[in-house]
Every structure is written in C-alpha cells, then in structure tokens.
C-alpha cells in the first residue's frame, strides 16, 4: 500500500491553487459594529496561563500556550463606499487624508454623504499606518464591513470617517476571530514537496521523485492540471477560523523580547496575542475579522496569563 500523502498548502484540497494577489475577505459575520481590523505579524512566543476550558483535562492548572504576536497600529477611515446591487455607486472621502492617499482622493469626485440616498450597503475604506512603527512607507488599503441596519451603519461610518480606529475598539480579549493572510513563498519546488507524493522505488523508470502516472491519454489530449508536477509553491491566500485572542494591550514593554523579534524588531504600538500559529512571514499584513462560525468549546473569557516569555529569539 502506498503511503498516504501529507496535505500541504499547495495540494489539490485548495482551489484555486495559485499565487495570491491580495488579502481579501469573502464573508463577514452577522454582528453589529465594525467587523474587521488588520495588523502585521511580528513573531511568536509562549505564555503560561491558567487553563479555563470547561472540558479540559488540565482545567484550573497552569499550562504553556504557544502564541503569535500581531502588531496593530491604529487604522484610519479614508472614505465611505456605497453599494447597490453589489456595485459601487458612490464614494465619500475624508477631508484630512495622509499624503500617500491625497492623489487617490483627487480622482474621486467630491461628494457629501447627504447626496447619496439610494443604496443597499456601505463599507469603510480603511488604511494602515505602518510609518508609526517604522515598518514601511506605503499603507495598505482595504474595505471593512459594518454590521447592523442601514441607519446604524451610516451613523457609525460618519463617526469614524477620517479618524483613527484602534484594535480595542473592535475586538476584546477572549473573543474568537478569523484571520486571513498570505503564506510563505517557497519558490519552484518538485512534486514530492509541493504535493506530498510518495517516493517511487529505486528501480523506477526515469524518475523516483515524480508522479507514477500522467493520467489518461485518450479523451482530453493533454496532461491535466490535476497531475502532480513541479512548479511554484506557496504565497497562497489562506483563512484560519476561530483563533482565540488571549491578550490585547498597548504596552509594548510587556511583550518585547531581548533583542527584539527576528526580522521584525520591537513592538511599538498596540498588539494582540493569538493562540497558536498564523500563516505568513514576518512583517506581512494579517486581516482580522469577526468569527463567522464560532467554536462553542472555546471559552468566551481569556485565560489568566501568569507569565510571558521575553527570552531572546536571536538564538545562540
């Protein structure tokens, strides 16, 4: 019996199997308020906390939890986008935009919110401020959905337009969220690493690290895309559901390790701790949004953190 292949980020269980163009969110939760945020992946550490899971074998005991740190500098609302029948019909820009976005604002005709009446939905066009943490110059632009009825959405959009939005205004500790990010790029890889196909015996014809069959030869007249071949691997858009927020803080000294995080530096702004790992490389944009299918086994309260590892991540 051939050994079952290990599913990988480039395997056929995902579709479309191609390199990501941007980080996008297809579905939003049915909640009220602003439904998303964004940050930059800084690195990982571990914490010691009291296990508060109801059915856990270690309930009430101290356990170690691997965590991912995402730095979340304040966002700014650049404009309000109005939709009708899933098409953009109008856009109202804020007056006090940063220099990087002034040119884009000039391309949009100046309109007032009162002039827009016939619409079905609206969203906020937000942008990050990576200059606050000396990460890069160019901000990342994306849309944020708002939950509630039309009147509640419009009132909230008016309130935040042109103003800063912080992570603690959107999420809270103990909450479940979904994360959207782009995985690490692996470059050109063979079918064994790319698809996890089994190695053939040493007496195999031509190759040992290749597929055993190229598929049928009669009907389609070509080799189908389903056949495991070498090619570019990684840099795919992936979504992970129900990530548990363990901590939200604006005190970087509580989390910065000695020497800073590898290939990132030190945290300078608001940050969150998520249980487990997050796809993507350091400094990459991570989109966060309200969980669309919550796990009932995860408590609604964050565990009591007793210790956060600040040991150097630089190695020996």
Q: In a nutshell, what does this entry contain?
A:
The protein has 316 residues and is mainly β. Helix content is 8%, strand content 33%.
- By CATH, the architecture of the largest domain is named Beta Barrel
Number of strands: 15
| Main sheet attributes: strand count, strand direction, barrel closure | 6 strands, antiparallel
CATH class of the largest domain: Mainly Beta
The number of helical runs is 3
The secondary-structure element order is: EEEEEHEEHEEEHEEEEE
Write structural notes for this entry:
This protein is mostly beta strands. It folds into two domains: 1-20 and 36-72 and 169-200 and 223-316, Elongation Factor Tu (Ef-tu), domain 3, CATH 2.40.30.10; 74-165, Ribosomal Protein L3, Chain: B, domain 2 (2-Layer Sandwich). It is built from three helices and 15 strands. It has helices spanning 99-106, 150-160, 191-195; strands spanning 33-34, 36-50, 62-71, 75-84, 87-93, 121-127, 141-147, 164-165, 176-182, 185-189, 231-234, 237-249, 271-275, 285-290, 305-308. Strands 1, 4, 5, 6, 7 and 8 form a six-stranded antiparallel β-sheet that branches. A six-stranded antiparallel β-barrel has the order 2-3-13-12-9-14. The chain has a two-stranded antiparallel ribbon with strand order 10-11. Mean pLDDT is 90; it is low at 1-7.
Relevant terms:
316 residues; mainly beta; Elongation Factor Tu (Ef-tu), domain 3; Ribosomal Protein L3, Chain: B, domain 2; 2 domains; six-stranded antiparallel beta sheet; six-stranded antiparallel barrel; 8% helix; disordered N terminus
């Amino acid at each position: 019996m051939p050994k079952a292949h290990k599913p990988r980020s480039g395997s056929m269980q995902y579709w479309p199997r191609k390199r990501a163009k941007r980080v996008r969110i297809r579905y939003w939760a049915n909640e009220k308020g602003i439904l998303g945020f964004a940050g930059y992946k800084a690195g990982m550490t571990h914490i010691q906390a009291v296990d508060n899971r109801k059915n856990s074998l270690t309930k009430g005991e101290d356990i170690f939890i691997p965590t991912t740190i995402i730095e979340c500098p304040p966002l700014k609302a650049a404009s309000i986008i109005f939709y009708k029948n899933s098409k953009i019909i109008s856009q109202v820009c804020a007056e006090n935009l940063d220099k990087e976005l002034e040119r884009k604002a000039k391309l949009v005709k100046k309109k007032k919110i009162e002039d827009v009446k016939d619409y079905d939905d609206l969203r906020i066009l937000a942008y990050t401020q990576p200059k606050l943490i000396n990460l890069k110059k160019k901000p990342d632009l994306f849309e944020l959905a708002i939950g509630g009825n039309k009147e509640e959405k419009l009132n909230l959009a008016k309130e935040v337009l042109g103003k800063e939005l912080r992570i603690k205004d959107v999420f809270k500790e103990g909450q479940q969220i979904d994360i959207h990010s782009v995985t690490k790029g692996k470059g050109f890889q063979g079918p064994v690493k790319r698809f996890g196909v089994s190695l053939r015996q040493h007496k195999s014809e031509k190759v040992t690290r290749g597929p055993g069959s190229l598929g049928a030869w009669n009907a389609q007249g070509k080799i189908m895309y389903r056949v495991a071949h070498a090619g570019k691997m990684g840099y795919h858009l992936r979504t992970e559901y129900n990530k548990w927020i363990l901590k939200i803080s604006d005190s970087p000294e509580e989390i910065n390790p000695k020497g800073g995080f590898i290939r990132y530096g030190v945290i300078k702004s608001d940050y969150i701790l998520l249980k487990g790992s997050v796809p993507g490389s350091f400094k990459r944009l991570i989109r966060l949004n309200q969980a669309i299918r919550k796990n009932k086994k995860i408590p609604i309260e964050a565990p009591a953190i007793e210790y956060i590892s600040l040991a150097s991540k630089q190695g020996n």
